[in-house]
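Let us walk through a complete example step by step. Step one is to write down the protein sequence. Step two is to encode the small molecule, zinc ion, as a SMILES string so that its atoms and bonds are unambiguous. Step three, shown after the inputs, is the structure prediction itself.
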Amino acid sequence: MELNKDINQFDIPVAKRTYLNNSNLIFFKKLLIFSPFLFLFLSVSVLRLIRNIELKPPTNNKFQVERNHDQRILGHLPYNEIPKEKLVLIEPNIEVHSDMRNSLLKMREEARKDGINLVFLSGYRSINLQNDIFYSLKSIRNQEALVRARVSAPPGYSEHSTGFAIDIGDATQRETDFETEFENTQAFRWLKKNAAKFHFKLSFDKDNKYIDYEPWHWRYEGSIEALKIFESSNRNF
Ligand SMILES: [Zn+2]
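Step three: the predicted structure of the complex.
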C-alpha cells in the first residue's frame, strides 16, 4: 500500500497539477471575455428560429398561389398521373380521361358536320413515356433542358399525364401536325371558334411566358376534377 501511494504521487507531479490549474484559469478568463459574444450569438439563433416558425406559410389562397408558382420546373406545373381505371380507349393508341370522352367525340362529330376533319394525335401519356419523349428528343435535337422544356414538358409535368389533354391535327394537312403552322389550318380555325362549347381550351397560347405556342394542344375543363387540376395554371400562366 505504501509503495502504491508513492507511485501515485510520482505519477502526478506537483508541477503538472499547477500547470493544469493555470490552464483552467485561462480558459475561464477567456470564457468570461467571450461570454457576451456567445450570448449574442445564441440570442440571434433563437430569434431566427422563432422567426422561421412564424414565417411558415399558412394554407390560405395567397400563399397557395406563391407555393404553386414555386413548384414549376422550367415553367411547367406538376401533374399527377391519372389512375388507370379512369382511362378509356377512344381509338387505337389514344386513351383519354373517361370524363372527357363524350365531349371530345362530340366535338369531332360536330366539326365533321362543318366539313372539318379533326385527327387525334396524342391523348394520355404516362410519366414513363413522357420521360422517354423529354430525354430522347432532347438529346436527338441536341438541346439543353431549358430549351427543350419550351416545347415539351418534363416527366411528371405534362398535362397529358392527367388524361385531360389532347393534341389535335387536321386530316387534310398532316404536315402541320405538332407544328406552329397548324394555326393556319381550317381545323384550328374551327377549334378556336368552337372548342369552348365542348369545354376545351388552348393550353399554351401565344401569351404564355414559359412555354412556346402550341396550337395543337387542347385541354378539357368540363368537370370539377379537371378544373381543380388546372386551377393553378388558370391563375398564373
Ligand atoms: Zn400536347
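Step four is interpretation. Residues 2-54 form one domain.
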